[in-house]
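INSTRUCTION: Work out how this chain folds

Token vocabulary: learned, describes local backbone geometry

RECORD BEGINS BELOW THIS LINE
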Amino acid sequence: MIERIDVGTRMSRIVKHNGVAYLCGQVGDGATVTEQTKDCLSRVESLLAKAGSSPEQMLQVVIWLADMADFAEMNAVWDAWVPEGHAPARACGEAKLARKELKVEIIVTAAC
């Protein structure tokens, strides 16, 4: 069975199937990579809770940065946030994001 949560015309914010939650890409507010990453991860936490999951249950994370020069700044926030001993499989790359002010987007897959 597939369960869709917060369904819109273009996408669902969460899709659950066979004990796995797939979150839509999350971006955050703020002027800096640090601010945007913190806000983004807060949104990820909220969606994981809504899906019946948590950061400890993350399986895979894909992070897109508008500029790889921001890699260390983003990782400083990430490293402080990710639960010790529960780091997911992760990839990070550079991409042109949906709006010019966006600096980071995070996509999460988690067990639920």
